[in-house]
Amino acid sequence: MVIREFVSAEKQVKKYNKMTKILNTKEKQAKAFEHLKGTQGYTNAMQAPKFTKVVVNVGVGSLKDKKKIEIIVDRLTKISGQKPALRGSKKSIAAFKVRQGDPVGLTVTLRGARMFAFIDKLVFVAFPRTKDFRGLTKKGIDEMGNYSIGIKENTIFPETSDEDLKDVFGMTITVGTTATNKKDAEAFLSYIGFPFKKGDEKEEKKK
Predict the structure, then answer these.
(1) CA 147, 34, 38, 18 torsion: positive or negative?
(2) pLDDT of residue 85
(3) Of 102, 108, 164, 200, which alpha carbon lies 20 to 30 A from 41's?
(4) Per-run averaged pLDDT (10 residues), the chain, 207 residues
(5) Residue 79 burial by CB count (10 A; 0-12/13-18/19+): exposed, middle or buried?
(6) Which pLDDT score is estimated for 90?
């Protein structure tokens, strides 16, 4: 059932891209060198950035209800198309009432076809469904070429859009690339279709 729902969402993205003649993430990545060589000064196709993996993290350390954690595992599996791994606490912290081995987070690492399908869904479906969405900040791009995004509600994904308010949870998505610096990563992600805020450019120029 989970895989069917994920495949269904993937088919919706492909259908939308076909109707609007928009290249999907994998197709765009293949043409990244041609598009970016002029602005980034690439002389070799191997210099153009590529996606390496997508890591989705959800914190569950504050949850003591096992059923609630099971619900999040189910929803995250539907969203990513892959069952998340449960991460336990490495040591006991009395101040937070956490014992060693207690579940503190869920992690999903996507590569290959699932990674490309997830990025397509994130860019073309999830972001447009976000309430009062005004673009992504560029501050999440690090010097290693990776980009981290904070998602407040899992309901922006079509597989869990009918979620009850009490079951809504947030997540952190980290998109890994082969870019060697922040500038190259920003140019690559913008080309792929990540909708960055235009105001961030003005703030950086002032600095």
Answers:
(1) negative
(2) 92
(3) 200
(4) 56 56 87 94 94 94 76 92 83 63 82 96 93 92 95 90 78 96 96 87 51
(5) buried
(6) 62
CB of 160 within 8 A of CB of 151? no
At residue 76, φ and ψ (nearest 5 deg) are -65, -35
CB 122 within 8 A of CB 173: yes
Q: Are 191 and 36 in contact (CB under 8 A)?
A: yes
User: Which ranges in 21-141 belong to alpha helices (H)?
Assistant: 25-30, 32-40, 66-80, 112-121, 127-129
Name the nearest CA neighbour of 29 among 120, 110, 138.
Answer: 120
Q: Helix or strand or coil: residue 59?
A: strand
d(CA 64, CA 88): 13
Report the candidate in 142, 196, 181, 136 with the shortest Cα–Cα distance to residue 41: 181
Per-residue pLDDT at 162:
73
Within 10 Å of residue 117's Cβ, how many Cβ atoms? Answer: 24
| Of the candidates 151, 128, 137, the residue with the CA atom closest to the CA atom of residue 189 | 137
Q: By C-alpha distance, which of 87, 114, 125 is closest to 103?
A: 87
